[in-house]
């Protein structure tokens, strides 16, 4: 056998072993229910990943709700697209100009509560297949929303419904509750090299 043939044979054997493992995992995962996902960490990609799932779900004609807990000063492409092109997606943003510069804690809390009420309706409505709660973690870390109530609503949502929470931090209890937790880690970001936030990429 030539050395290339030997390499091929080794590769084939390794792949067969890998396939056995994957097949066993697939066979073991047979529970059918919605999942709760947390996308966290300090790197770029949390909100855009959540909107990737929105697109997936829409592909199957699923009913989708999106609630954004921060209203940036900048419009985002996903907001424009959903509002203009996807009237079926229930889209809501915390509409009071909440930004990182905000000083008015009591009006922020009021806005957070009003926005949470809309999210809660979605979390109680079994017709929603997917609910995205974008930047919800900050509402918990600032104590703008009662953690126990938020966690309970996520936990008690309809069995078939999936929920995606994005944002840095969020606390240990939220991590424990969620089925899938992914941390996007910054290796580097163009912004730090002086590149301006870019339409269609950053917003
Ligand atoms: P995106 O919306 O692009 O998926 P994100 O949701 O992971 O980003 P956020 O913390 O919500 O990140 O910040 C949103 C904005 O800040 C985006 O324009 C994003 O490009 C930018 N951003 C995210 N992470 C970083 C970072 N580590 N350094 C600089 N800018 C960042
Ligand atoms: Mg985000």
Molecules bound to protein: adenosine-5'-triphosphate, magnesium ion
Low-confidence stretches: none
By CATH, the superfamily of the largest domain comes out as P-loop containing nucleotide triphosphate hydrolases
On the 0-100 scale, what is the average pLDDT?
93
Total separate domains: 2
Give the CATH class of the largest domain: Alpha Beta
Strand arrangement, major sheet: 3-2-4-5-1-6
| Strands, total number | 6
Principal-axes geometry comes out as globular
Q: What is the element string, with H for helices and E for strands?
A: HEHEHEHEHHEHE
Structural class comes to: alpha/beta
> What percentage of the residues does DSSP assign to strands (E)?
5-15%
Using the 3D structure, state the CATH architecture of the largest domain.
3-Layer(aba) Sandwich
Observed structural traits:
203 residues, alpha/beta, Rossmann fold, 6-stranded parallel sheet, 7 helices, 6 strands, 14% strand, globular, binds adenosine-5'-triphosphate, binds magnesium ion
Descriptive report:
This protein has 203 residues and is α/β, with parallel strands linked by helices. The chain folds into 2 domains: 1-30; 34-193, P-loop containing nucleotide triphosphate hydrolases (Rossmann fold, 3-Layer(aba) Sandwich), CATH 3.40.50.300. 44% of the residues lie in helices and 14% in strands. It contains 7 helices and 6 strands. The protein has helices at 3-28, 46-59, 77-85, 105-123, 136-141, 147-155, 172-177; strands at residues 36-40, 64-68, 90-93, 130-134, 162-166, 180-183. The chain has a 6-stranded parallel sheet, sandwiched between helices. The chain is globular. Adenosine-5'-triphosphate (ATP) is lined by residues 42-48, 166, 184, 186, 189, 191, 197, 202-203.
């Amino acid at each position: 056998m030539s050395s290339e043939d030997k390499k091929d044979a080794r590769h084939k054997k390794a792949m067969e072993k890998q396939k056995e493992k994957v097949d066993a995992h697939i066979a073991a995962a047979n529970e059918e229910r919605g999942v709760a996902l947390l996308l966290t960490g300090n790197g770029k990609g949390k909100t855009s990943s959540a909107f990737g799932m929105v697109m997936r779900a829409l592909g199957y004609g699923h009913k989708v709700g999106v609630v954004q807990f921060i209203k940036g000063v900048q419009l985002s492409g996903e907001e424009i697209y959903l509002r203009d092109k996807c009237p079926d997606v229930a889209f809501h943003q915390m509409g009071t100009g909440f930004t990182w510069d905000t000083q008015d804690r009591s009006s922020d809390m009021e806005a957070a509560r009003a926005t949470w009420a809309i999210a809660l309706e979605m979390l109680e409505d079994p017709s929603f297949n997917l609910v995205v709660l974008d930047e919800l973690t900050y509402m918990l870390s600032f104590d703008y929303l009662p953690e126990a109530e938020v966690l309970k609503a996520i936990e008690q949502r309809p069995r078939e419904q999936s929920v995606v929470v994005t944002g840095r931090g969020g606390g240990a209890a939220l991590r424990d509750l969620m089925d899938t937790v992914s941390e996007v880690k910054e290796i580097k970001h163009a912004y730090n090299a002086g590149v301006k936030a870019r339409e269609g990429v950053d917003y």
